[in-house]
C-alpha cells in the first residue's frame, strides 16, 4: 500500500516549494494540486483544511497543515505516524 499525499499549492509560493522539496528528500511521492488558477480546488482546500494559505498538506486523509507543520513533524519524528 502506498501513501496518499496531497499538497495544495500555488506556482509562486516559496513555502510550497520548501514543502515539496522536504517530501522529496524523504522519498515521499505526492500529488500537487495548484489552486492559484483553479477556484474550485481552492474552495475544496479551504473546506477540507479550514485555512486559506498554501501549502496545505494532507497525508492519508489527515490534515498536516503547512510547511512549518510538516517540518515540525519531521523534527519531532512524528511524520512516520501518518505513513503506511
Keywords for this structure?
84 residues; alpha+beta; four-stranded mixed β-sheet; 3 helices; 4 strands; 38% helix; Glutaredoxin; GRX_bact; cytoplasm; electron transport; disulfide bond
Quick one: how many beta strands? 4
Shape: globular
- Whole-number mean pLDDT: 97
How many H/I helices?
3
SSE-based structural type: alpha+beta
Helix content: 25-40%
Element-by-element helix/strand order: EHEHEEH
What would you report as the Rg, rounded to the nearest angstrom?
12 Å
| Low-confidence parts | none
| Binned strand content | 15-25%
Q: How widely separated are the two ends?
A: 7 Å
Please summarize the sheet with the most strands. 4 strands, mixed
Strand order of the largest sheet: 2-1-3-4
InterPro entries: GLR_AS, Glutaredoxin, Glutaredoxin_subgr, GRX_bact, Thioredoxin-like_sf
Domain Glutaredoxin: 5-64
GO molecular function, one term: glutathione disulfide oxidoreductase activity
Family: Belongs to the glutaredoxin family.
Amino acid at each position: 500500500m502506498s501513501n496518499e499525499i496531497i499538497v495544495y499549492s500555488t506556482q509562486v509560493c516559496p513555502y510550497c516549494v520548501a514543502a515539496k522539496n522536504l517530501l522529496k528528500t524523504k522519498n515521499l511521492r505526492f500529488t500537487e494540486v495548484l489552486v492559484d488558477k483553479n477556484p474550485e480546488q481552492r474552495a475544496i482546500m479551504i473546506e477540507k483544511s479550514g485555512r486559506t494559505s498554501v501549502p496545505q498538506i494532507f497525508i492519508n486523509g489527515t490534515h498536516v497543515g503547512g510547511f512549518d507543520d510538516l517540518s515540525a513533524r519531521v523534527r519531532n519524528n512524528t511524520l512516520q505516524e501518518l505513513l503506511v
